[in-house]
Amino acid sequence: MLTGFAKVEGLGNDFLLIDRRDASPAVLETLVARLQAAARALCDRRLGVGGDGILLIAPPRTPEAAATMIVVNHDGSRPEMCGNGLRCVALVVAGSARELVIDTDAGPRVCAVREYQSGTCPSGHVAIDMGPPALQGPRTIGGRTFAAVSMGNPHAIAFVGADEDPEALARGEGPAVERDPLFPGRTNVEFARVEPDGSITLWVWERGCGITSACGTGACATLAAAIAHGLATYGRDVVVRLPGGPLVLRQDRAGASITMTGPARVAFVGEVEVTAASAGRT
Known about the structure:
alpha+beta, 8-stranded mixed β-barrel, 4 helices, 41% strand, globular, disordered C terminus
């Protein structure tokens, strides 16, 4: 059976998006299981559609929400949250420049769609209240200290010096840190460098995906860790520069939510067969 999808991206962090707001709980449960089984094939960049993961738009769970976002990683695992994916979901669900609530496995999130450009492949900027970070203390792995921060999903952040390459460290150390026993459910891994102008250069090894062009929750977790280490301050916009482009973040005070603003775009739409052998059947 063919399923309609949209290929969406936020700063190059790309996903297959499937809208099933009409699905019953039973149908939804079956579809999630099928997507998890098919994820590697669907996300294969040579033989499938290609993507860092899959976004499923489901019926809302809470009265104030417009929809629910369910995320399936490239490897079939299901993370609690995805910031870039949430911007894409908000763009598609909103249909115009407005504020709405999207439920996630990490709880409801308020999103505001701005600079909306309509059409078959809409685009815009989306600001999201990502919720307050939870700082969980340091972890030492391989002689390097990581700040453990939850944004509804786990992150381990290391700040590096001017003479260190965050990309090389993310690629070289990220896989081992992701699966370190200190993180029983695995973790996202960030290597960050604070620049002289106060911006942050960031490379992320994402749990279940590997290196991606951008990670919204990783950027938020990094800002929280930077503030905790005296490398950034409350009450000002901080630009976090990822391989796919910049995100603008702000936390106004301790315990407050972090606001993340960045682009989202529908690249194209199509149909795909959702089976475990989906590669090549687009």
